[in-house]
Amino acid sequence: MGRKEAREIALHLIFELSFKQFDDAELVSDRLEQEVMESLAGDVALYAGELPEEQKAYIRNTVLGVCAHCAELDAVVEAHSTNWKTNRLTHMTMSLLRLALYEMQYAEDVPVGTAIDEAVALAKKYESKEASAFVNGVLGAVAREKADEKAE
User: Fold this and answer.
1) Which residues neighbour 97 within 8 Å (Cβ) at sequence distance 6 or greater?
2) Which pLDDT does position 148 carry in this prediction?
């Protein structure tokens, strides 16, 4: 299993946590146990096989990082969501944006372009065409703003 699949599992956990019914660290630990992964594999092929320790660490760090910076990430989405209120966005769209923004701002081993491309691909898989265009627009605006800040 590679980073792409690990990112998708991280998205699932971020989505699950967006309903605020679980303790962040407990949920991540529970879901990454081999027994739980195997039980989910019948429904979702993504969960088949054992996760390498490197991918578990990525998922754990990313999901907990998104949780720790959630208010900040949501403020970035709000600031870059032209003509959209974030409370009108689906939990999945917000989860995608939080994941990508976290990677863009905090994951030194993830290029900005990769974070955007992966988020758009996941939006196409889990959301509508309009949602993937929205995700691309928000993330592109954030990337341009960051590039302009570095240029100054």
Assistant:
1) 73, 77, 89, 119, 135, 138, 139
2) 81
Tokens of 105: 């701002």
Q: Give the helix ranges, DSSP H, for the chain.
A: 3-17, 24-31, 34-41, 53-68, 70-80, 91-106, 112-126, 129-151
Is 44:61 a contact under the CB 8 Å cutoff?
no
**Helix locations, 107-128, DSSP H:** 112-126
Mean pLDDT for each 10-residue chunk of the chain (152 residues)?
Answer: 88 88 76 76 72 89 94 94 81 96 94 95 93 94 87 75
Give pLDDT, residue 110. Answer: 93
- Written as six digits, the tokens of 25 are 């660290």
* Dihedral (Cα; 64, 65, 70, 76), 10-degree rounding: -160
> What pLDDT is recorded for position 43?
64
Please give the C-alpha separations between residue 52 and each of 33, 61, 67, 74, in angstroms, as whole numbers: 12, 14, 23, 31
Model pTM score: 0.88
Amino acid at 139: L
